[in-house]
Amino acid sequence: METNFEYEFRFTQDEVNGFAEVTGDKNPIHLDEEYAAKTMFKKRIIHGFLAGSVFSKVFGTMFPGEGTIYLKQEMKFVAPMYTENKYNAVFNILDVNTEKGKAKIKTTIFDDKGKETIIGEAVVKNDKYKE
Predict the structure, then answer these.
(1) What does residue 29 show for φ and ψ, rounded to 5 degrees?
(2) Minimal CA–CA distance to 96: which of 126, 72, 61, 67?
(3) Residues whose CB falls within 8 Å of the CB of residue 69, separated by 6 or more in sequence, listed in order
């Protein structure tokens, strides 16, 4: 059984705009470059939950993949994320309950300099984790 997985990704401003439309979170820190320039970030940042949604994508389609039920996710946003920058999501299995088919997985996103941007932990259920 594979115990680690990595996924490289980036988001475009169009994707950020789409996320704002779907969720209704139209905070100008994500959408308005002029507004964002006056903040501590100096430019627009990606919504934290848009960035964290990469965990859902990976769990449901790649690691462990199809059939995964996402049970829990804790996230701490430790650094801003920006459009067009490359990021790497890293998944490390911490514990597996083979009786219940559940795994506790450390979830971390790193920027292209290796700095943590999101740290967290997830619990997922998948038959791949059963005995």
Answers:
(1) -60, -20
(2) 126
(3) 124, 125, 126
For 61, residues 6+ apart whose C-beta sits below 8 A from its C-beta are: none
| Range of the structural domain that residue 124 is part of | 4-129
Q: Would strands 87-97 and 69-77 be described as parallel, antiparallel, or unpaired? A: unpaired
Q: Does the pLDDT at position 2 exceed 80? A: no
Angle between helices 13-23 and 48-61 (to 10 degrees): 90
Contact between 105 and 121 under an 8 Å Cβ cutoff? The reply is yes
Indicate which CATH number applies to the domain containing 17: 3.10.129.10
Tell me the per-residue pLDDT of 39-64, one tens digit each, with 9 for 90 and over: 999 999 999 999 999 999 999 999 99
Q: How many residues does the chain have?
A: 131
The single-letter DSSP state of residue 64 is S
Residue 43 token pair: 């430019």
